[in-house]
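Q: I have 245 residues here and want to know how they pack in 3D. Can you give me a structure?
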Amino acid sequence: MANQTTNNEMPLIAHIEELRGRLIRCGFAVIFCAIPCGVFWKRIFDIFAVFPLRLSDPAPVIIYTAPAETVMLSFKIALSGGILFASPFIFWQVWSFVAPGLYKKERAVILPVAFASTFCFFAGFAFCYFLLPLLLKFLTDFAAGQIEPFFRIDEYFNFIIKMGFAFGFAFELPVVSFALAKMGVIDHRFMTHYFRYAVVLIFIFAAFLTPPDVLSQTLLALPLLVLYGLGIFLAFLATRGRIKQ
């Protein structure tokens, strides 16, 4: 009985050790990418924080209200940039860890899925990057002429990063749908059946991330609905592939 218990526990221990090793490698990758981001944090700030305000009228004034706030900002930029630029390696580690759950023939999709995850993540981040000027223009124009916009840097940068990463991970929905369908966890019928619930959750998710106005919520929710529909199609293709095998 003792030997049987030990043998049953060994796979779990091996998985935990493997997960630990992959997390450590991901941590080192983030640190490696964060160092140059910390060195050039001012340039990165201009690209990611100043550019989205180019359409705003009146132009908001970015301020800080604590002596060490800019120092903490540089660390946040370094960490966020490290995660962003290390994301290809992180996605490779994630899908490699999931690979044992796939059939032998299906493990060949790990590299394409990791590549697709990276592409979708950066596509979502880029989509948000070019959407933000329109959203911020609407928000600053809303009270133009009566209230002058002053953005506290900590809150403003947190808003930019939260939106960017939210869109990046949201654009992973088709890839995750394909992978889960390939593993047999879900299929296109499951996603179609729960479509109405998905719509509600998507709008709640969009309302949680955006300021309390219908426009910004809709600008977030509509792409997510399109991505969910794409996920259904990809799950259908993955399910067909499993049936043929």
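Q: Anything worth noting?
A: The longest strand covers residues 61-63. Residues 1-10 have pLDDT under 50 and may be disordered.
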